[in-house]
Amino acid sequence: MSSRYALFRRRLAPIAFGLAIAFMAYTTCNKQQRTTATFVIDYGTAQRDVRAIDAEIWMNGEQVTRLHRVALDNAYIGDTRFKTSLPDVDGELRMDVEMAGGEHRSINRAIHVTEGATVTVPIERDLK
Asked: Which end of the chain is more exposed for a tag (fewer CB within 10 A), N or C?
C-alpha cells in the first residue's frame, strides 16, 4: 500500500491541487464579469434651476454606485455624467434633485445597459 500512497503523493496530488486552483480561479473570474457604461443626466431647460443631485444605481437589491454633485454658489450645475462598472445589465437609477428654492424631487428610472454604452437619462419633464 505504501507504493500506492507514494504514487498519489508524488504524482497525482500535485495534479489534483493544480486542477482545484484552476477551477477556483475560473469561477472567481466569471463571477466578476462587469459591464461598464457612462450615464448622462440631461436636465434640459431646467438645468439652471438644479442646485444638487444625488444619484444611486441599484442592482439585485444592492446599491452599486453613487454620485453626489453640487453647483457652486451663484452657478448652475452644468453637465452631469459619470462612468461606472456594474455587476449586471438591469437595474434602477434613483435620483434626488435639489432645485432652486430648496425644493426636492425624487426620480426613479429603470435602466438596461450594454458594455461601453452611453445612457442618457432625460429628467427635464420631472423637474418642471
From this structure: N
